[in-house]
Design brief:
D-Maltodextrin-Binding Protein, domain 2; five-stranded mixed sheet; binds L-MYO-inositol-1-phosphate; 2 domains; Fructose-1,6-Bisphosphatase, Chain A, domain 1; alpha+beta; eight-stranded mixed sheet
């Protein structure tokens, strides 16, 4: 069955990243999906490119994408009940940053076969940093192997989190957890991109990252990269499958994972 190599995802991510870089700083049309959730013309351009390429190279695969939703595929002769080959695409993770001219965003592409994440790529076009991972092989940054942090002391750890677009309306808005960790760690960063936060947890720039109620396309690639780099990755209820919604995710050094999970859950 036509299954992509990791290099296929890397090539697609780099090409889409070139579109983001070209659109950065341009007076893009910014469209509001809710009071603070935005999408730009460049988002749409990059997603259209990725969907066109995937449909052209991998006919019959399913695509789950941020802007256009789900495009179910069916591979001839495939008798599996679900969609056996699925791509999870966020053409621009960090859209609010892009819309405000802050150069911190990435293209996130994950691929799953038979319900298991097989490979993922997150590409930051502004730093030319390509994070990638393949199950059973490893995780890399621009081809160099990466490892999660070996932190074991929360007090001296550097964490990251983000707040969803529903922060003003949802009672579980993550502010209690943010306050606790701000007072009990070396710091909590908010970069504005879940996918890059997960990759930073994969290479030890962050000792841990957590966020509530993300979408599959935000976490599919970055979660795999962090997992295969040796971080402990799960949902905040402890479930292993972080791609099935609601994607409330924790990716942390094994030495602080349990402590972080207990704190996050204590405020739920
Ligand atoms: C965003 C994530 C961020 C999260 C936002 C949104 P987008 O993705 O990167 O971590 O807090 O709610 O999901 O909208 O930039 O693709």
């Amino acid at each position: 069955m036509n299954t992509p190599a990791l290099t296929d995802l890397e090539s697609l991510a780099r090409q889409a990243g070139a579109l983001l870089r070209a659109g950065f700083g341009r007076a893009d049309q910014i469209h509001y999906k809710s009071e603070i959730d935005v999408v730009t013309d460049t988002d749409r351009l990059a997603e259209d490119f990725l969907i066109r390429e995937i449909k052209g190279q991998f006919a019959g695969h399913s695509i789950v994408a941020e802007e256009s939703g789900e495009t179910p595929g069916r591979i001839p002769g495939d008798k599996s009940p679900g969609y056996s080959r699925v791509w999870y695409i966020d053409p621009m993770d960090g859209t609010v940053n892009f819309a405000h001219g802050l150069p911190h965003f990435g293209v996130s592409i994950g691929f799953a076969a038979d319900g298991v994440m097989r490979c993922g790529v997150v590409y930051d076009p502004m730093r030319d940093e390509c994070f990638s991972a393949e199950r059973g092989v490893g995780a890399w940054l621009n081809g160099a192997a990466i490892r999660a942090s070996g932190a074991s002391d929360l007090n001296t750890s550097l964490l990251a989190t983000e707040f969803g677009y529903d922060i003003r309306s949802h009672p579980q808005n993550n502010l209690d957890q943010y306050a606790y960790f701000t007072l009990h760690t070396q710091g909590v960063r908010r970069t504005g991109s879940a996918a890059l936060d997960l990759c930073y947890a994969a290479c030890g720039r962050f000792d841990g990252y957590w966020e509530l109620r993300l979408k599959p396309w935000d976490v599919a690639a970055g979660g795999l990269i962090a997992e295969l780099a040796g971080a402990r990755v799960c949902k905040v209820d402890g479930e292993a499958d972080y791609v099935t919604p609601p994607c409330s995710i924790l990716a942390a050094a094994p030495g602080i994972h349990r402590q972080m999970l207990e704190v996050i859950v204590s405020f739920q």
